[in-house]
Amino acid sequence: MRAPVVVTPPPAAVPTPAPAPTPAAVAPPASGPESAALMARFPDPVVRYATPAFEPGRSTFTSNAELQAQLRAIVREAKAAGVRAQLLVAGVSQAGQPIEALLLSRQADVSPAALRASGRPAVLLIGQQHGDEPAGAEALLVVARSLAGGTLAPLLDQVDAIVLPRANPDGASAGQRATASGIDLNRDHLLLRTPEAQAIAGLMRDYAPAVLADAHEYAALAPYLERFGAVARADALLQYAMAPGVHEFVSRAAEEWFRRPLLDRLQKEALSSDWYHTLGAAPEPRRVAMGAPRPDTARNAAGLRHEVALLVETRGSDLGRAHLARRVHTQVVAMGSILASAAARADDLSRLRRFVETETASRACAGEVVVEAAATPSEYQLKLLDPASGADRSVNVAWDSALQLQTLRERARPCGYWLAAGEREAALRLRGLGLVVQRIDETGVVRGESYRESGAAVPLETVPALLDVERGSWYVPLDQPLAALASAALEPDAPGGYVAQGLIAGGLRGVARVLARPGFRLSTLP
Ligand SMILES: [Zn+2]
Hints:
The protein is α+β, with helices and mostly antiparallel strands.
């Protein structure tokens, strides 16, 4: 384990307030979404990409059928180049489309057990969780092909790669953000309501990647025009896992080993970047927030599993095919940088994982668990562009910084959680996340706490209790590496947790905190 490094300072405060936006500048240019001067700020890269979307005369993105054919072609190309490539069917979408990934490795045995036992870190790259953000899938086809025999292939001497170019094929074919049922895939990584989220959880459970990179796109025009009379400038918005329960060493690794080299790499390619953020709505349109500390996004759920998890959002989901080559190039550069960092830090990542897993498991029955946290209010200078002239414009905004999280609510960490016998569905979802879940095989009594509603100031309180645990009910121990994920799911007042989302049928009576190591017979769910 390397010595702890300096904690990232928050973005510098900006002293002067910004001028109010001028409504006259809000009107978009009549000729198209972007003026010629604005377009000129984003020249195409020199490099040419060859996914189906870039075929001459094309007006659409790579289709699901084309993507499937491409993955099979890459498997053949890898074989010719001496790289082991295996097509993984991670799941089937709600509309019946296969959710396919490529595993790329130089190891002889590419079974999940053998890869995990090798100690070599795996890097999971995910694209297009949101169907209307196409650059990620196009870029990950380029990256997979490069790993299979191009310039990225030498990195497979240090790491294995799993590339899932299109996590939401139904959304992609419909040109919509959400999955077919309307559920946002990138809010479903704790509850696993959708087969798409279950597919990603399965890859994480089976291959235990050390690193996740999650490729998205952001809307660069209308949201910024509405609030600031300007448009977004950054080619890439970046953030790593920031949620209560993410181990501080994992955060530091994300900052030191991954984000800083990534900033250098983007700068060398003349691509601009900023922290990922979302824009405020009325009544606070000038308030801007970094990605929230909720546990159900891919990056934060991965962070709770001790993956170094990075979000890369390119400009922009509201540009149609404009600047597509530059958007794809930005993702290719970012994913290449993340893979290179993982290869350079392969031994460090393996040591980090062993240490953090052991330490997390050792914290059961001790210390505090943060149930809810909030970003810290600060100020920030957003670098935007004038929509007509394309000139740089800065605006000062109120900024919710997720780099420093403030604890809103915490309580003593239990030894584990008890679930009533009727909560089988919750037990299976937790198992789907890779948690150890045990069935209680004999009726017994254990010291614990139940939850009850209380006054307005403290919405929930815990009540000391001797818990009568019945045969057939469930126990989720916290002396396991994924304990932080269990607390995020099972503390009833944790935002996005299983009780708040209605997955625990018995509500507050369906779950309790176990405060002693249980002495009754348990059998572990396979
Ligand atoms: Zn997205």
